[in-house]
Amino acid sequence: MVIVCPPAQFSAYHVGVANCFRQMDLTVPPPGEEVTLDMSDVTFIDPVGLVALWAWKCRVQVTCPAFTLRLPTDPDAQQYLLVMNFHDPAPRPTGVQRAMTGDGVYFPIHHLLQPGLGVVEGLAAELATAFGDHGPGTTPALAYCFGEAIDNVFQHARSPIGAVAAAQLLPRSHGRWTQASIADRGVGVLESLRGSGAHTALGSDEEALRLAIQRNITSTNPYVGTYGRSRPGVGLYMISEVCRRTGGELLLLSGDTLLRVGRGGEIVEAVPPWPGTILTVRLSGRALDDAGDVISEIRRSLRGPAPAGLGRFED
Amino acid sequence: MITIRLGATGHAFLSSRPMAKYLRESIDTALRAGADEIVLDFSGVEAVTDSFTDELLGALIATADRDILPLLRFKGCTEAVRSAIEALLHEVTARRAGAV
After folding, report:
1. Which of A148, A303, A315 sits opposite B86 (nearest CB)?
2. Domain range summary for chain B, segments of one domain joined by +
3. From the list A125, A238, A315, which residue is nearest B13 (CB)?
4. Which residues in chain A have their CB less than 8 angstroms from residue B52's CB?
5. How far apart are CA A58 and CA A78, in angstroms?
């Protein structure tokens, strides 16, 4: 069986993730089938395409070990896959930065099988180090999104392949764009929320995705005691707010729906079913430089003026 | 007084619930030992996620057998860390008051 990548581009930016998914068959072939992923005609691919294909490839190789990758004929696309470790049959859990002709800063594919103590922290720090001075406004915001999103996979997704993450920063493109993508092959947002007990009546992936980006919506049970109640369900809400307020974009794909969140609101597109979730954040460095510490700003705007004496702080 | 140094984890971004649970155990231990004041020293930590503060402080405040908020002191916080802690405390306190 030959699975053919979309003929030209597999990109969130150019033709859209939904179009890419509609153009190729990412169902898992029958066990024992010889599978070829044909990327010959790919001329452009970005992190969302990489993590989606990597996660799918991992799942397929479990039951179809005879797996062949047909590389792009386009030399730039081929070089990009090399830089992003796509050729590597088992990329190291920590990425190696390689030189690539061009202006980008590349955070190659990282495949995290187990949550492990400090794993998410390590990855967020690596991302910050890789982007470093290229994105003074962008790096903390992206590291936040990255940390929350990967923690979510391990908290909620029950993904047999764990999490796959990749990112890139294009310092000289218009607005200095960064993009980070995280994919899993878990139960998806709908199933995860339904399992919480509070949202058993959810009827569709669209409903679940629209709900999931709201504040304090989660499948994590809060801690409740005599002296208070914890407040899970903030991470995805914050990610969507960062995107809304800075002119960025959150792409959240789960089940048969892709939800796009940006300054203009929310847009929903139908996609062929993806068992699991793919989260992509696209942020403009220019907008974030102007916004300063956007995460702190959002927190302050949510809480209003802090009452005096709430927490004792010292230098 | 007991000081717990969160920067000693070696991570500048504290962003996961497993890490928060791990650190919470140290605070729990200090509380059980009868500490009259616990200093959470964030020196070396640049930023935290809201899931991290929820798991560390939200869980701690909710599940303690007494009101521990007056016992906690926060040291060496960057603006990013402080905003996360304040947001959490604000909401937890509001919930206690029945406002949320």
Report:
1. A303
2. 2-96
3. A125
4. 147
5. 20
